[in-house]
Design goal:
InterPro entries: Integrase_cat-core, RNaseH-like_sf. This is Integrase core domain-containing protein. The protein is an alpha+beta fold. The protein has one domain. It contains two helices and two strands; from the N terminus they run ααββ.
Amino acid sequence: MKTPPRCPRANAHAERPVGTIRREATDRLLILNEHHLRAVPDRYAAHHNHRRPHQALQLAPPRPDQPITKPRCTSIRRRPVLGGLTNEYEPTAA
């Protein structure tokens, strides 16, 4: 059975992540071609699952790609993601 489009109650598990990606990534970017259209959500999903802090997890990412360590220095490195649309931060050695 097909779900009707734009009906949040019909498929709430899919509407939430699709809406988040749409608001935070694709609505703020000019999509150039089909390859770019496929690459943007993939890169955003990788950032969301591996680097972005989540409040329910005490500001830890759900599946970190690096071990989480306590910052021992005050210097932080910023890395732009999706052309500067969002950023990733990590502590650096002084």
